[in-house]
Specification:
Elements: H1 2-6, H2 10-19, H3 26-36, E1 39-40, H4 42-53, H5 59-70, H6 81-85, H7 87-91, E2 107-108, H8 117-131, H9 135-149
Parallel strand pairs: 1-2
Helix pairs in contact: 2-4, 3-5, 4-5, 4-8, 5-8, 5-9, 8-9
Length: 151
């Protein structure tokens, strides 16, 4: 995955393809998230948004895609998909906002995000908040939508 993140030409294409069928296990998903977080490319954003809308994508991957989509509206946004899905943590008051600020992204792909990428990201997060079949995702996406709207 590290090699993928360093390749401006094929890396974003490969990441977008991986998001078309994201891993269902937590470790694989975490690795894909870590790599994707540091690359900015319109193809990746398009694939992430598509993943947020597909009912056949497991809830964990949909939530992870929502978190990554949010970074296109707020680049320093860093929120754990695991925390977002943990209703006990939400009810205890943990996970109420963004986590640590990231160092930003390391690589701009050969298809830079479109000028309206931030607005596309905001709209995708709001759509998930309104329409996702999983109540945990709707709740977390609603909170994320509020955070990125304030930016």
């Amino acid at each position: 995955m590290r090699t993928i993140a360093r390749c401006a030409d094929q890396g974003p294409h490969t990441l977008a393809r991986l998001w078309s069928s994201p891993p269902t296990d937590g470790a694989g998903l975490d690795e894909l998230i870590r790599t994707t977080r540091h690359v900015r490319d319109q193809r990746i954003l398009t694939a992430l948004i598509a993943s947020t809308e597909r009912a056949d994508v497991v809830p964990e991957a949909r939530m992870a895609a929502i978190v990554l989509v949010a970074t296109y509206a707020w680049p320093s946004f860093d929120y754990s998909w695991r925390m977002a899905l943990d209703s006990a943590a939400i009810n205890a008051g943990r996970g109420q906002g963004p986590g640590t600020v990231t160092d930003g992204y390391a690589l701009m792909g050969t298809s830079p995000p479109s000028p309206d990428a931030a607005e596309l990201a905001r709209a995708a997060v709001k759509k998930s908040a309104d329409r996702d079949p999983d109540a945990r995702i709707r709740d977390a996406a609603s909170r994320i939508a509020i955070y990125i709207e304030r930016r």
